[in-house]
Amino acid sequence: LAVTGVTMGKYLSIVMPTAIISMLALSVYCTVVGRRRKMNPSQFATDIMEDIEAQPLQTKFSPRVKLGVLVFLLGVGLILMFGIFSDLVPTFKVNGETVKLETTEIVQLFMYMSAAINLVLVKLNTRDILDSHITQSAIGALFAVLGPGWLGATIFTAPGNKKIMIEQIGGVIQQ
């Protein structure tokens, strides 16, 4: 859709709400499906209290964990910056032609960089990564975001649909 003047900002204004709605819908679904039915309320309260008492509450995080979160958020911020301000995207001369990095390449570049810094410099314990609750939530969010993205890519890249998108829908968006 770039040939019709649809910028990354316009694209993100459509995709971000869709992703947030998908994640919220997945969260509600997991909450409703994962909830135990026909449980004695006193037994439920006892189970919750046992879980709370069994696990000490960790209110302070180590500097390594804070650095890891900061590196990840910095990567996300840079992706958004390059996505919204497309003039900042690096360009290269290849065989005399100026080539610009694609958005997918920028996302991969910064996410791989974030993962490498977290694994090497922050020295995260790789065994704990898959066992953490955030990883399990991220995998659920991954399906919630990539599912509609895959569907959209299938629709947008089909040759017959591409012509309609550029000529008809692109004209409507430009107005």
TrEMBL record:
Keywords: Cell inner membrane, Cell membrane, Membrane, Transmembrane, Transmembrane helix, Transport. The keyword Transferase does not apply. It comes from the Bacteria. InterPro entries: Anaer_Dcu_memb_transpt (IPR004668). It is a multi-pass membrane protein. It is found in: Cell inner membrane. GO terms for molecular function: C4-dicarboxylate transmembrane transporter activity. The chain crosses the membrane at residues 12-34, 67-86, 106-126, 138-158. GO terms for cellular component: plasma membrane. Pfam families: DcuA_DcuB. Its main location: membrane. Belongs to the DcuA/DcuB transporter (TC 2.A.13.1) family. This is C4-dicarboxylate ABC transporter.
